[in-house]
Amino acid sequence: MYDLAFRFDNGVQSIFVDGELVTSSQGHANLYSREEFQIGTWGGNFMKGRICDVKIFNRALSIKNISEL
Question: Is the pLDDT score of 30 beyond 90?
Fold first, then answer.
């Protein structure tokens, strides 16, 4: 089992696995949208497995905050 965290902050998307930054990239739009927000699916594909806990914050967490989740 893994702990995954995705952070969007000022156009930078970062992905963390078990509290460690594994990749980041720039040029992403903010997530502010009126469209449906989905977890575990993308482009008609669905994740295999279970999602046991989801937390959504109204701010970008610091790396320290993410490692303490």
Answer: no
